[in-house]
Design brief:
single chain; mainly alpha; 2 domains
Amino acid sequence: MAVEHDTRVIKKTVAIQPVIDAYIRKIWSMLIDEGYDANYSTALNFMLLLAIVQVTGDRGISEETKRIVWAYIGNRSLINALDLGEDISKLKEIWIKGE
């Protein structure tokens, strides 16, 4: 039985922390080195899918991983900086469209 896949693309603008961006770029490079026709979005989706599979697997995530992720979410100054960066990008888009 064939599985149907949703082929729609949902475009979003997101703010990504520099460390996460570096890992996305490493995965992108790895995919290209393996011969795949990959781009930044492919690498990001690959990374997210890997995380989803890992978290929903039989073993779940380790206590150390939980600690790191929750510490990130609890870092309000970092989250606020990312939010501000995203807001500035949105304003620039609006400004450019208005010209």
